[in-house]
Amino acid sequence: MSISTLSLSLLLLSLLLLFDTLSMTLSEPRIREEICIPGSIFKKGCEMCSCSPDGQILSCVPISCKNLKF
């Protein structure tokens, strides 16, 4: 394998690993501290959210926003 082929292979592998890391980061629920109704599930902007039993921690995941009117 030539040096340029090896460099290209390493670059492609690095890009694949970066894409995989970014996609995992974007798909993980975000946790925020907000007051909400304990156990509730609700839409907030372009996210579907759920409230913890103590009403303090809000976990949200992105959802489609194509039906929102501005």
UniProtKB/TrEMBL annotation:
Principal localisation: secreted
InterPro entries with a match to the protein in the record: Pacifastin_dom, Pacifastin_dom_sf
Membrane-spanning residues: none
Location in the cell: Secreted
SUPFAM superfamilies: PMP inhibitors
Keyword Disulfide bond among UniProt keywords: yes
Keyword tags: Disulfide bond, Protease inhibitor, Secreted, Serine protease inhibitor, Signal
GO cellular component labels: extracellular region
Pfam families registered for this protein in UniProt: Pacifastin_I
Range of residues in the leader sequence: 1-27
Family the entry assigns: Belongs to the protease inhibitor I19 family.
Protein name per UniProt: Pacifastin domain-containing protein
Organism: Pediculus humanus subsp. corporis
